[in-house]
User: Fold this.
Amino acid sequence: MSRFVDTMVATASGAGGQTRGMTTGEPNAPVRRSWAEVHQQATRMAGALVADGVARGESIAVLAGDPAEIAPAVQAVWLAGGSTTMLHQPTARTDLAEWAGDTLRVLTMIGAKLVLLGAPFDALSGVLDEHGVSYRRLAELDGEPLAAPVDVDEDLPALLQLTSGSTADPKAVRITHGNLWSNAKAMEIAAELDPETDRMVSWLPLFHDMGMVGFLTVPMLFGIDLVKVTPPDFLGRPTLWPDLISRYQGTITAAPNFAYAIAARRMQGVDDGAFDLSTLRIALNGAEPIDPAAVKTFTDAGARFGLRPECVLCAYGMAETTLGVAFAPVFTGLSVDVVDPEQLEAGHRAVPVAADSPNARAFPLLGPPLPGLEVQVVDESGKVLGEREVGQLRVRGEAVTPGYLTVTGPRDTQDAEGWLDTGDEGYVVDGQVVVCGRRKDVIIMGGRNIYPTDIERAATAVEGVRAGNAVAVRLDAGTRRERFAVVVESKLAGEEDAVRALSKEISARVVDAVGLRPFSVVVLKPGSLPKTPSGKLRRSAAAGLVPTV
Assistant:
């Protein structure tokens, strides 16, 4: 039996399912539906799926942008005993032929025989027809209500979560019903969720794990009020985010670091009293490296609207653990570990120093592992390291995926003892996890491990560089002449003299920060840096933009 599905149904059928639910359609046409109403629609959709012959454990893909359509659709898939995959969505700049090819690879990889198609992507039905892909329009998916959920085992897949890598070489994380239940319960405990008093506000994309699991599945599962808009809504008007928190008295929100930087900048131009952010108790920052300076900018900008800095919750997570790995303690704010840069880079030890020490590195403390998870640090030979020793982070527990689906077939993720290699470097201090960076992105020069985030923060501190749009990339990786370059976006791109001055300033800031000069600085027009479908910068792809002669 799936504890996850049983709890979701019980929540919808209980008193909380009648009184709490989700609000969509902001800011133009808000509509609120209770979780009971979402469930009623889901049972009719599930009935149609079962009548169409959907089998237990079958993979069903969803391509839709409206959270009001997505919520009952994904619940219907679970009620029908299937697994859900949220497809990456094309944008106005997407080449549809390329997108179609990528999507077909994904559908073949996950074995999906059906796509549930909703607004605003209905027009793509022709592309699916052309390639012989079966689909059902969500607006027409209706049948006799399913009397009871299809019984599934805990080890059957509930979610096939596409990773944030290149869509041309896709990979899906196989999240079982047991994985999903375990991580959801662990986050409920760590975040001290209270359905009676909490209200979640989010614009995160539902094809990303933080949006899909954290800000749709979790509130649906436990019956927490949710206000849900889309990424285009936020990007088109960043102040909509604090406005919704204010009007709906939101208590929980989340975003990657870059979004807090954008919100801070936009809030600075808003009149006093425009927002009330005093109700916010959790502003989770995760999904990408956390910049303490950006966090402070956000809390400073929000202070005059009643935002309490203690609400910042730094987190570490990944799709391979369903979502969460570690949460900082609730309502304690950002805490950092300040360490000696030379010991970190050359000695692989995080030796604490005073905050005002020259070139000191400050890493956010990401909290202890969530209930049911263990985190361990090992060296390259697999030897377990002690506190403040820097090495490879690995994780074990019930929430950890048993494997990936890839274009070349299934692939296990765990070793013989159940450990998953996260691909990250870091250490543990006082029981809390610290992440230094992705192992594949670490720049090794003169025996030193240089973390690209240190270079990128120095670059974005230069006026003229777009916030959150700088990458440090390895050149000649693994050779004796390994080097690095800095690639940034700026409105000054194309202005020869201005670019020359900007490049010189970036080089100087980087030298001050890490004691090394970049091989080159490349300045691009806004929108040029390669990113994943969820908006993360792709360092390896950016390396191809650097002239090497």
